[in-house]
Specification:
Helix content is 55%, strand content 11%. It has 379 residues and is of the alpha/beta class. Helix 7 packs antiparallel against helix 8, helix 7 runs parallel beside helix 9 and helix 8 runs antiparallel to helix 9.
Length: 379
């Protein structure tokens, strides 16, 4: 099912916020003393974007009560979210309004996923996490302001939560944001690697929605819009010295992430993502890199016909990926260790099971070794 997130896209952040506040005033119960939760990370607090939001809310809504959760870290932890829900429940136990009327999330995929989980959990704070995973309760309205271009979390109906101590990854379902506010300017200060990893995550989403047992005409159309945008815009975003060109490229990457997110909202991800989860848990490899460094090898191993990829597009994707020298980025986390020798690839069937072709552990080893430039060590 394609989610029903309303997308607001404008050229300036102030215009986006003004339009958003009008939407909120028209559609949500913003009475005096309304409670609002702002979810972000320490980095965006320092950049002043959250202050801008809070100042606008306090100006436009009399007596607004602002709650804050600014401790989101990469790969949001289930226990950290549990601790916040417990603390928030105690803090608001005797308040007139004990839960937020809406949530605004400002940040990358981890921030948006955290806010999506909280939109469900704060609606029923007494349930434990296992019950939350099974719940289909109504969510608190959520406004997603993505500051990276990659996860598509601003339009997807699920969120990923991690328990690194137990080496587990969970998906909370049916938590699509109510609004997505898209503005490329908020991505302009992203460093090289965050720009790269985000775009690679979006590329992985688009490709994996094509080589997917759940694909349909609508999801394929979204994916085939996303891929050319990434191929065109990523080199410019990474390498151009022209600020206007870079901003235009970032706008394309933001659109591509949104299209790719809409594709996987129908299909979910497949083999590359399933392979990425144990790599992230074992080595701490950033998600966008972990799910994308195998893409070129997967395409070459299975060939474009099997993967529902036009040949010319498959060749362009491989050319871009190969030009990026992803193994050198991977070495920052693996210290040249063989991933195949370090990990037992017992793949998550909810993702690997979506893949259109068969695979076995020997095939996976060949793909990972080729992606890690360790083919010579395998022979």
């Amino acid at each position: 099912m394609i989610n029903k997130t309303t997308i607001i896209e404008t050229e300036t952040l102030n215009a986006s916020l003004s339009q958003l506040l009008i939407e909120l005033n028209n559609n949500l119960p913003l009475n005096k003393g309304v409670r609002v939760l702002i979810v972000s990370s320490a980095g965006f607090v320092k950049r002043g974007l959250t202050k801008h939001l809070i100042d606008g809310l306090e100006h436009d809504f009399e007596g607004v009560q602002i709650d804050r959760y600014f401790d989101v870290t990469p790969n949001p932890e289930q226990m950290a979210l549990q601790n916040f829900v417990d603390a928030h429940s105690k803090q608001t136990a005797h308040s007139v309004s004990s839960k937020p009327a809406f949530i605004i999330a400002v940040g990358g995929g981890s921030v948006l996923d955290s806010a999506k989980v909280l939109s469900r959990w704060l609606e029923q704070p007494s349930v434990n996490f296992d019950a939350l995973l099974q719940s289909d309760a109504q969510c608190i309205p959520l406004i997603a302001v993505p500051t990276t271009s990659g996860t598509g979390a601003e339009v997807t109906p699920f969120a990923t939560v991690w328990d690194t101590l137990s080496h587990k990854k969970y998906s909370v379902m049916n938590v699509a944001p109510t609004y997505a506010l898209l503005n490329p300017a908020v991505t302009s200060s992203l460093p090289h690697e965050e720009t790269l990893y985000g775009a690679l995550d979006a590329l992985s989403h688009a490709l994996e929605s094509l080589w997917n047992n759940n694909r349909n005409d609508t999801s394929a159309a979204f994916a085939l819009k996303a891929i050319p945008l990434i191929l065109d815009a990523l080199p410019t975003a990474l390498n151009s010295a022209n600020e206007d060109e870079v901003l235009q490229a970032r706008a394309k990457l933001q659109q591509a992430a949104c299209f790719a997110g809409q594709a996987i909202a129908t299909t979910k991800t497949a083999l590359a993502h399933a392979m990425s989860y144990p790599i992230t848990l074992s080595f701490g490899v950033p998600h966008g890199l972990a799910c994308s460094f195998t893409l070129s090898a997967i395409i070459k191993h299975y060939r474009h016909e099997t993967l529902h990829l036009p040949e010319a597009l498959a060749n362009k994707v491989c050319a871009l990926l190969d030009s990026l020298d992803l193994p050198s980025y991977l070495e920052q986390y693996t210290q040249r260790q063989s991933i195949v020798e370090s990990i037992d690839f017992n793949l998550d069937p909810s993702r690997a099971g979506n893949f259109v072709a068969s695979y076995n552990r020997e095939m996976l080893g060949e793909i990972v070794n080729a992606s890690q430039n360790k083919v010579e060590e395998q022979s």
